[in-house]
């Protein structure tokens, strides 16, 4: 019998480090106020915006979880583990992890980060990965490849949240670095209202290797996205990287659902 799957509340670990110059600059622009509780973060927590109460209430994911999409397994686990979220996926990658469920505070944070100009939250969101056992270790020494936005969407939003997340994760995972190897060649309509089949058809052929991108098959590559929903986008990115000759592929997301 294995331990029941868990979504646990967060606990702060580790002492804070001095702010990087860019963080100090961002503090001047964005008040250090928690987007979930409105409280100020503890100075020694390492978080620059998230308060201790907010972190403690997040639906963080800890193992055992699905090897492919990272969704937590609940209850007593005997026999084969069947994940309802990705059973139809045929993954082009070896494994995947996520930090938290896209529910409650987790969902609010993703929306703040992605749709409400919350680029300053990237560092804190990556830091949440320190509370997901084994998450950052999978990124060590790897090339992190953010899921790209189409140029039009990038212009409208002003930033690619997945690239910001990847860069923040690379600062925490030993030996990891970010390479923007992919481009989005078709501007897909918002996927939020599409079913699984439509998402897959939409994502297929949406990505290409950036011209002149430095492909190095010797390294493990981890595709980074903000949310794992059906996995169609991540799978399409991994298929493209695999076609370019990269054999070891994983995915890492901030939230699941
Ligand atoms: Zn799964």
- Cα shape: globular
The count of strands amounts to: 9
Low-pLDDT ranges: 1-6, 9-17
Number of discrete domains: 1
- Considering DSSP H and I runs of 4 or more, what fraction of the residues is helical? 25-40%
Give the helix/strand layout:
Elements: E1 6-8, H1 21-29, H2 52-56, E2 60-62, E3 95-101, H3 104-115, H4 122-127, E4 143-146, H5 151-157, H6 161-172, E5 177-178, E6 182-184, H7 196-203, E7 207-209, E8 221-228, H8 232-243, E9 249-256
Parallel strand pairs: 3-9, 4-5, 4-8, 8-9
Antiparallel strand pairs: 1-2, 6-7
Bound molecules: zinc ion (ZN).
Zinc ion binds next to loops.
What does the model show?
This protein is an alpha/beta fold and 257 residues long. The protein has one domain: Rossmann fold, CATH 3.40.50. The chain is built from eight helices and nine strands. The chain has helices spanning 21-29, 52-56, 104-115, 122-127, 151-157, 161-172, 196-203, 232-243; strands spanning 6-8, 60-62, 95-101, 143-146, 177-178, 182-184, 207-209, 221-228, 249-256. The strands form three sheets. Strands 3-9-8-4-5 form a five-stranded parallel sheet, sandwiched between helices. Helix 8 links the parallel strand 8 and strand 9. Helix 7 (196-203) packs parallel to helix 8. The longest helix is centred in the middle third of the chain and has 12 residues, at 104-115. The structure holds zinc ion.
Structural key phrases:
two-stranded antiparallel ribbon; 28% helix; binds zinc ion; 5-stranded parallel beta sheet; Rossmann fold; disordered N terminus; 257 residues; alpha/beta
Summarize the structure.
This protein has 8 helices and 9 strands. By secondary structure, it is of the alpha/beta class. The strands form 3 sheets. The chain has a 5-stranded parallel β-sheet, sandwiched between helices. A two-stranded antiparallel sheet has the order 1-2. It has a two-stranded antiparallel ribbon with strand order 6-7.
